[in-house]
Specification:
The complex is a heterodimer of chains A (667) and B (152). Chain A is α/β, with parallel strands linked by helices and 667 residues long. In chain A, the strands form twelve sheets. A five-stranded parallel sheet of chain A has the order 10-7-6-18-29. Chain A starts with a strand and ends with a helix. By secondary structure, chain B is α/β, with parallel strands linked by helices. Chain B has a single domain (10-145), classed as Rossmann fold. Chain B has helices at residues 3-7, 21-30, 53-60, 81-99, 116-133, 137-151, and strands at residues 12-17, 39-44, 65-70, 106-110. In chain B, helix 2 packs across helix 5. The longest helix of chain B has 19 residues, at 81-99. Classes of the chains: A alpha/beta (667), B alpha/beta (152). The A-B interface holds A 70-73, 96, 98-101, 103-106, 110-111, 113-114, 117-118, 121, 513, 533, 577, 601, 603-604, 633-637, 639-641, 649, 652, 654, 657-658, 660-662, 664-667 and B 9, 11, 13, 18, 22-23, 25-26, 28-30, 32-35, 37, 40-46, 48-52, 54, 57-58, 61-63, 77-81, 84, 88, 120.
């Protein structure tokens, strides 16, 4: 026979005004299994909690029902009080007689009766509760950061500086990402490389960071605190330990006309190459798709000239596995380019370029050493047109969202152009100027007022070539949709930011949800912006949505703090409100028939398979389900799916819930 | 609607999830919205946990009506529990109907943590609907007959 204590709270007048608390306590005292019942003005106060603690000790209570406010409010308070009095905290239930009773009903017998019914339901439930122990899951205090752009760099440095090990993987031969391609950054016009490259070096030299470039995530198994990552190290065809990065191979390589990815096709690179001079690590890789040795079995010049014999043809991709406790996704974004703008002639006219290509033209490390020269003939354009919202905010193009960064970088581009071509004329076609950010609006005003950039509000319908000029046809909506025609030498499209190629595949690999545009989805758009729905996997930067550098860095530091917070605990402590498959020892057995309906229902992949073997022969008798306590979040969907009622939920078991329903309806 | 039905106070059990509807009902309380006393709430982690055998149990124990309510589609705290509940309800409703159980006595709905007013409305509507239907004596008599049969 259980010994249950019932404690009815008046909540000042909040409950007592409409519910006869004394009557509730007196009635509850007569329920089966109730040893002690009382009411008190403020049960959550110190004297109220002491009342509960003393009663537990005095009456040797093995279960407690506190009839008060919502359990969402004070369940932790009362469970803690019980725990302090030596009672298992999960033997305490809170009957909600305030939010669900006293506040929503008028004073009267019906209200008091409802409070009594609610208490009766929970008395029956608590008499079937079992003491539960919190779950402790060990944590591997090492993080995996995927993507070596500014987001991944920032997150890695922050986690590493907090004293934890970091594995940083980057699929390109160098870290740096898009930020390393940029010329100057808004709104301060800092040189992008000048602020980024020191951080790249810091990453490479940090004792807590292991950097793998030219590497991709192959597989991720496990759960928060206990992931196992398999990483593919793509063959670089060089021995990195021996290579000194002298660069002889790249100067001798005869295949020189490969469009450089780093320069967005505006310059060329060789088949053995370092993407850019400031690359980290500053060691070349061989592009197998273009190398004469790999493609035709000839050449091998680099091997002959390498002073340290670092070239290794025939190297294969290798795989490593790393145990990590958390994962930060920092895979970044891309910009729309090829074939997306037939009306603007992209791909048809050499002098219609993307914003990212303009960055390379304006960059001191770019193909023109920072001079604005048009790709077709290398002349300095005297008239330049920038088209904002190229793709963005255009449902017809499948991109209804605003790419956020384009207004600002277009203003910057126009400004840089005016700074470099003093007698040049620049025009920006825009839909709206979205310059929300610290010093952003001022920056745009500066472009217009000080640098004389001509802003035209309206869309461009077409760009076509006529007599060596690019004719830009648009409208000025501020002048009553007056048609505007500009003969330009060069056109720059502020192309939409889109999810990186392969984002969807990666999301599926990691069980992370993503939006219709393949950007990764956060757990809560406002309150959990750097977490994903999968515990232990965090988001940083533009893989979540288009973001500028300050936002990206802020998000990366946010994700790093989440990881550091996770790693600061000795182990993961979780409420034991999880599902469990029944086991009956000895001999170890279960009613589970191994249909694995639970496996199909579980959103967390928490159902594992366990073999029950004959103790003597070792023969497998049957395979049954087993819940991984680290993965289970306690939704209970498997419980109602189970055909043989072999899986049950701690804290919300079938027995408890049936008893509660039955008791609620008793007369 | 007959005179007796007007006086009849239906007994209704609400099976709700902890994260949306339970919180929505809490909000109705903090907003001091008034609704009928007939509905008693049973808290579950998720609508996905709500075994529909519990609904039959509630009818057997004398409930005249039932509310099942959780998070709106795509808002589930556990990503997909409410989808399982919705699908189960679709199948279960067909089965109940086939067996001759009055499916009008089960109200399946979504109430978010921000919809306190919707919760109050749903409670009042359900109470009015069930009151119009009258006591669910048929199920109770079948259940008690079974008990008698079993006792023999």
């Amino acid at each position: 026979m259980s010994k249950i204590g019932v404690f009815v709270c008046h909540c000042g007048e909040n409950i007592a005004a409409t519910v006869d608390c004394e009557k509730v306590a007196n009635t509850a005292a007569k329920f089966d299994g109730v040893e002690f019942a009382t009411d008190y003005k403020y049960m959550c106060s110190d004297p109220g909690q002491n009342l509960i603690k003393n009663a537990i000790k005095e009456h040797h209570l093995d279960g407690v029902v506190v009839a008060s406010c919502s359990p969402r409010m004070h369940e932790p308070t009362f469970r803690k009080a019980c725990s302090e009095a030596g009672l298992n905290p999960f033997m305490c239930e809170v009957a909600n007689i305030r939010e669900h009773c006293s506040w929503v009903h008028e004073k009267g017998d019906a209200t008091t009766q409802k409070a009594i019914d609610i208490v009766r339901g929970l008395v029956e439930k608590v008499s079937r509760d079992h003491p539960l122990e919190s779950i402790h899951v060990p944590i591997t205090k090492k993080a995996l950061v995927i993507g070596g752009g500014i987001a991944g760099i920032q997150a890695s440095l922050d986690i590493a500086n907090a004293g934890h090990k970091v594995i940083l993987i980057e699929r390109d031969p160098s870290i740096g990402g898009h930020m390393s391609q940029l010329s100057e950054t808004f709104p301060t016009l800092d040189c992008s490389q000048c602020i980024l490259t020191p951080r790249m070096v810091e990453v490479a030299q940090h004792p807590n960071i292991t950097l793998y470039t030219y590497a991709e995530l192959e597989k991720l198994e496990g759960f928060i605190g206990n992931f196992k990552a398999t990483i593919r190290l793509k063959a670089k065809s060089i021995d990195e330990d021996v290579c000194t990065g002298c660069g002889t191979c790249t100067t001798k390589c005869p295949t020189k006309k490969i469009p450089s990815e780093f320069n967005q096709g505006l310059g060329n690179r060789t088949a053995i190459y370092v993407p850019f001079p400031q690359a980290v690590p500053n060691k070349p890789v061989i592009d197998k798709d273009h190398c004469l040795h790999y493609q035709k079995g000839v050449c091998g010049l680099c091997e002959k000239v390498c002073p340290t014999h670092a070239i290794h043809f025939g190297q294969d991709d290798s795989f490593i596995t790393e145990d990590v406790g958390a994962v930060v996704l920092a895979t970044g974004f891309n910009v729309l380019n090829t074939d997306f703008f037939p009306e603007y002639g992209y791909g048809k006219y050499k002098d219609v370029i993307t914003g990212l290509q303009f960055e390379r033209l304006a960059s001191a490390s770019g193909p023109t050493s920072g001079e604005i020269r048009r790709p077709s003939d290398g002349k300095i354009p005297q008239k330049i047109v920038f088209i904002a919202c190229a793709g963005s905010r255009d449902p017809a193009k499948g991109i209804p969202y605003c790419s956020k960064i384009c207004c600002m970088y277009t203003a910057k581009h126009a400004m840089l152009y005016q700074h470099k071509v003093h007698d040049g004329e620049s025009t920006v076609f825009y839909m709206d100027i979205r310059a929300a950010g610290k010093n952003y609006e001022e920056f745009v005003r500066r472009a217009i007022e000080e640098d004389g950039v001509n802003y035209v509000r309206g869309r461009v319908a077409r760009v076509y070539e006529k007599d060596g000029k690019l004719i830009v046809k648009g409208v000025d909506t501020l002048l009553g949709a007056k048609p505007v025609e500009i003969e330009a030498d060069m056109v720059v499209l502020a192309t939409a930011g889109v999810a990186n190629a392969g984002a969807e595949e990666l999301a599926q690999k990691l069980h992370v949800s993503y939006d219709p545009y393949h950007f990764f989805a956060e757990a809560h758009p406002k309150l959990r912006p750097v977490e994903t729905n999968t515990a232990g996997i965090y988001l940083a930067g533009a893989c979540q949505a288009p973001k500028d550098i300050p936002d990206t860095v802020a998000a990366a530091s946010g994700a790093a703090v989440k990881v550091a917070g996770l790693f600061s605990q000795p182990d993961l402590v979780r409420e034991p409100i999880i599902a469990k498959v029944n086991r009956m020892p000895p001999p170890v057995f279960s009613t589970c028939v191994g249909c694995f309906m639970c496996e199909t229902a579980c959103p967390y992949n928490a159902i594992e398979r366990e073999e029950i073997k004959d103790r003597r022969s070792g023969k497998v008798i049957k395979t049954i389900a087993k819940v991984n306590p680290g993965l289970c979040q306690g939704c209970g969907t498997c419980v109602s799916f189970c055909r043989s009622k072999s899986i049950d939920m701690q804290g919300f078991s079938n027995e408890e819930m049936f008893a509660e329903v039955q008791a609620l309806l008793e007369d | 609607m007959s005179e007796t039905n007007q006086e009849f106070e239906p007994r209704i059990v609400a099976f709700v999830c902890n994260w949306c509807t339970y919180a929505g009902a809490d909000l109705a309380g903090t907003s001091r919205l008034k609704y009928a006393t007939n509905v008693k709430i049973v808290r579950f982690p998720c609508t996905g946990r709500i075994d529909f055998m519990l609904l039959l149990k509630a009818f057997e124990e004398g409930a005249d009506g039932i509310i099942v309510s959780g998070c709106h589609p795509n808002d589930c705290h556990y990503t997909s529990g409410n989808f399982h509940a919705r699908r189960r309800w679709t199948v279960f409703r067909g089965l109940l109907d086939f067996m001759g159980i009055d499916v009008r006595r089960i109200h399946f709905t979504w109430v978010s943590a921000a919809e306190g007013a919707k919760w109050a409305d749903i409670v009042n509507e359900t109470v009015a609907d069930i009151r119009a239907l009258g006591p669910y004596d048929e199920y109770k008599s079948i259940a008690s007959n079974f008990e008698k049969e079993a006792a023999k």
